[in-house]
Amino acid sequence: MYELCPETPNDTPEVEALMDLCFAPGRTALSSYRLRDGVPPVEALCLVLRDGSGVLLGAIRYWPVRVGDKPALLLGPVSVHPTTQGEGLGGLLMRESLGRARELGWARVMLVGDLPYYRRFGFSKLERVEMPPPTNPDRVLGLDLVDGAWLGVEGHVSRETGGDVAAGLAEIRRDPPESQTCVEMDGSAKR
Ligand SMILES: CC(C)(COP(=O)(O)OP(=O)(O)OC[C@H]1O[C@@H](n2cnc3c(N)ncnc32)[C@H](O)[C@@H]1OP(=O)(O)O)[C@@H](O)C(=O)NCCC(=O)NCCS
């Protein structure tokens, strides 16, 4: 049995430790982190996955960004504890969070990562979307949460600087649906 919940401040030190374990040292020096500096994450989409004993198995986070003048979600980091990688938990975190993002009214999501992993969730290379350097353009990937949402969206990816980020994102529904809370899942949720 697994429990998937929005990350709370109590979870954060453990999530940071998991991410330090899963990524190379210096992960916060990556250019994608500059887009997160001083910007609150999208709380409803930052999820922690624990086993039935409460052991942290994985986590995923999202931040709001702008691409040109359009809002988008920046997915990442996503990490699964090395002892449970390859069991479908990464897929579970991806699918569940993307489903919640769609329910919340987000139209488009992007990330910087390996296409061979992310294409299974529908991601493809974004053309003419420029991350702050140094970023390999082949790793800049996007997914429509609403049909055609990336059509004509191009330009520099920049920090979401609005004082009230949610209020600035006209496309985004304000109140999370009731489903955006903790859910218990059994192994069949993994694919
Ligand atoms: C990437 C990660 C989140 C995937 O989680 P996971 O629980 O192992 O993933 P799943 O079990 O759902 O999927 C495993 C499949 O993904 C593949 N895969 C994992 N990482 C991959 C990568 N970087 N490129 C290509 N395929 C990858 C595995 O080979 C496996 O393939 P298979 O289904 O054909 O056997 C996890 O491996 C991880 O935390 N890695 C370290 C941190 C990281 O790189 N995060 C992503 C960058 S933001």
From TrEMBL:
Keywords, sorted A to Z: Transferase
InterPro entries, per the entry: Acyl_CoA_acyltransferase, GNAT_dom
Superkingdom of origin: Bacteria
PROSITE patterns: GNAT (PS51186)
Record-linked Gene3D superfamilies: 3.40.630.30
GO MF annotation, one: acyltransferase activity, transferring groups other than amino-acyl groups
Signal peptide: none
Organism of derivation: Paracoccus litorisediminis
Keyword Transferase: yes
Stored Pfam families: Acetyltransf_1
Protein name, per record: GNAT family N-acetyltransferase
Claim: Metal-binding is one of the keywords in the record: no
Domain called N-acetyltransferase: residue spans: 2-146
